[in-house]
């Protein structure tokens, strides 16, 4: 030590001052590594609130403001959301009442469903996604993809979703006024299975805010800013993301659990 100080011509007090400062600056080094690990594991999809919950799930209780400050110091930002495809093409069939009335909270699984169609565009080649979300936990319970916005996209999604219902479960299913939801076949399938159809007011995206929010999250976290060589590659990514969204992606309003974890826990507690 004394040879090092002599060679650098540094006073002993100055050396220990800088050493202490260094220790202070590094007191969050382990926490920063944990934050980075979570951030990159989820491909930049988590902001400071969700990372705070992920740390808590790992046994680390850290104030969210501290996590936010450390993320800012490391220039870690969650992804941003952008706009959506609109399927409304005028009245071509029966338009249903807005039964849901923006009541997006459900007390149990398969009580309230929401659905919509969104579009992805890769240099002129398009992919359409039609999912159904359960408002109890935000889980995507069924979905279909197709290269064109054909009725079969919604038809097959609904067919898959209906298999998830027990005999006593008759949810409200809410959508916008897209042409697919005005089709006689779609409305007949709902009626025959005891589901109540609900539709947003024309041009009011807030009436289906939960699905709008999901599309925003989906596109910001696995589409915008990414490069895809083909629609097939994008389709594979979307399917993998929905599995991740259901099983791994934790939510603040679900007490730090993923949708599937929350549903499983609630059914076990019932």
UniProtKB/TrEMBL annotation:
UniProt domain Integrase catalytic: residue ranges: 105-267
GO molecular function: nucleic acid binding
SUPFAM superfamilies: Ribonuclease H-like
A Pfam family it matches: HTH_21
Protein's GO biological process: DNA integration
InterPro entries: HTH-like_dom, Integrase_cat-core, RNaseH-like_sf, RNaseH_sf, Transpos_IS3, Transposase_IS3/IS150/IS904
Record protein name field: Integrase catalytic domain-containing protein
Organism: Acinetobacter baumannii NIPH 80
Lineage of origin: Bacteria, Pseudomonadati, Pseudomonadota, Gammaproteobacteria, Moraxellales
């Amino acid at each position: 030590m004394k040879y090092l100080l002599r060679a650098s011509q540094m006073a002993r007090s100055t050396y220990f001052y800088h050493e202490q400062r260094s220790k202070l600056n590094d007191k969050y080094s382990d926490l920063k590594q944990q934050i980075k690990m979570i951030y990159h594991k989820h491909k930049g999809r988590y902001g400071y609130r969700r990372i705070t919950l992920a740390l808590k799930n790992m046994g680390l209780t850290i104030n969210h403001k501290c996590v936010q400050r450390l993320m800012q110091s490391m220039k870690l930002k969650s992804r941003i959301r952008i706009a959506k495809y609109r399927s409304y093409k005028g009245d071509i069939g029966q338009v249903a009442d807005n039964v849901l009335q923006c009541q997006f909270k459900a007390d149990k699984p398969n009580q309230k469903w929401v659905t919509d169609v969104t579009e992805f565009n890769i240099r002129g080649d398009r992919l359409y996604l039609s999912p159904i979300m359960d408002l109890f936990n935000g889980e995507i319970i069924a979905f279909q993809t197709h290269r064109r916005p054909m009725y079969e996209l919604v038809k097959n999604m609904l067919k898959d979703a209906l298999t998830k219902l027990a005999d006593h479960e008759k949810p409200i299913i809410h959508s916008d006024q897209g042409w697919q939801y005005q089709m006689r076949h779609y409305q007949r399938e709902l009626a025959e299975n005891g589901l109540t159809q609900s539709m947003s007011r024309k041009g009011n995206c807030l009436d289906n805010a939960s699905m709008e929010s999901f599309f925003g999250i989906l596109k910001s976290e696995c589409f915008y800013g990414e490069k895809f060589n083909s629609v097939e590659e994008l389709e594979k990514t979307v399917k993998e993301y929905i599995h991740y969204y259901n099983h791994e992606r934790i939510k603040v309003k679900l007490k730090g659990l993923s949708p599937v974890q929350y549903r499983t826990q609630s059914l076990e507690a019932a």
